[in-house]
Design a protein that fits this description.
Helices cover about 50% and strands about 0% of the residues. About 5% of the residues have low confidence. It has one domain. It is built from 15 helices and no strands. Helix 2 runs antiparallel to helix 6. The two termini are about 30 Å apart. The protein is mostly helical and about 325 residues long. The protein is globular, with a radius of gyration of 19 Å.
């Protein structure tokens, strides 16, 4: 299972190559060996209801057709953006790479709006882009990823080209799409979930994740995610870092004053129980009820907002990406 070695691409085969990537252990569901890092066991045994968001079984209008990934690219997708980023960062390998990275040009806590643009561009390209769009995005991300690797004194070994870490991040992104769409449009049946899931490997294969690594079915994805979340163990250093994200300390104070309470509520609401526990985020039964009622209302209102309005941001992002490619401007 190796990606073809091309100029500028990481090498997963030859340990003597300058571009060789020594990857971490894959999740046990793939039959991996003992993990490279010894994790502390969570307080509660992990089950799907602890690592996935609760979706209320609320009646919604019947779907005209099975939903697809592209249907989740409307502006409401960003409601859970901060929570999804926190979920990605919560894995020890990803957290170490983010916190120790010397690449400030795309750092979330230094340049939040640029990071929002580049992440949104990546998602739009992964779902809607042509092969040429995806190749250009992959090459741009590769440039930044080459500089993100652990140092000899790092507590956790990591490399941004580690396909197992990329796989975890891609899986978290998919979960964000699925959860947001279900909260807005209603809980999907197993068959609808399967249809929605197909093609989701694009979140990883647009970078270095090999197609064979991605779970083939939605049920296999659940198995993968449950095992992958054993790597979600937050220490005090990470909690201090993520607290800045949860409280939006990287944006101007005026935005925090106007929208801080709402955004903190949305971020906490989009975190599954295990992630809240690890990040020491308080959440009550009353909070959960208010969160579900909010999205029941938003989902109702969303039906009356024209599609071209809801998808305007994504369409504008794709135009910007293709314009940057045409003019050879930086994508990341």
């Amino acid at each position: 299972m190796s990606t073809a070695i091309k100029p500028g691409e990481p090498n997963y085969v030859d340990p003597h190559s300058d571009s060789y990537v020594d990857e971490g252990a894959a999740p046990v569901w793939r039959g991996s060996a003992t993990p490279a890092v010894e994790f502390t066991a969570p307080e509660h045994a992990l089950t799907l209801d602890r690592v996935r968001l609760h979706i209320p079984d609320t009646h919604r209008s019947p779907r005209k057709r099975p939903a697809q990934l592209a249907d989740a690219l409307d502006f409401w997708m960003f409601a859970g953006a901060a929570a999804n980023v926190a979920m990605q960062f919560a894995h020890q390998g990803v957290a170490a790479g983010v916190m120790e990275s010397q690449v400030e040009s795309g750092a979330l806590m230094v340049h939040p709006w640029k990071r929002l643009r580049t992440t949104s561009a990546y998602l739009a390209v992964a779902v809607l882009g042509t092969d040429e769009d995806k190749l250009a995005m992959r090459q741009a991300v590769n440039v930044a990823h080459r500089q993100v690797r652990s140092r000899p004194d790092s507590k956790v070994k990591y490399n941004a080209f580690d396909r197992n870490l990329q796989m975890y991040v891609a899986a978290a992104i998919y979960i964000g799409f699925e959860d947001t769409h279900q909260l807005l449009c209603g809980k999907m049946t197993d068959d609808e979930l399967e249809a929605f899931y197909q093609g989701s490997d694009t979140f990883g294969t647009t970078l270095q994740v090999h197609p064979d690594m991605w779970p083939k079915t939605r049920a296999e994805f659940d198995d993968y995610w449950l095992e992958a979340c054993t790597g979600v163990v937050c220490d005090d250093e990470f909690r201090a870092y993520i607290d800045d994200l949860l409280h939006l300390r990287m944006v101007h104070w005026s935005i925090r004053v106007m929208f801080g309470s709402l955004l903190r509520f949305l971020t906490a609401g989009f975190l599954p129980p295990h992630f809240r526990e690890q990040m020491a985020v308080e959440w009550s039964t009353s909070d959960q009820r208010r969160f579900e009622h909010l999205f029941q209302f938003v989902g109702f209102v969303n039906r009356f907002i024209p599609k071209f309005v809801r998808f305007a941001g994504t369409n504008a992002m794709m135009r910007d990406v293709r314009n940057r490619i045409r003019k050879q401007r930086a994508l990341v």
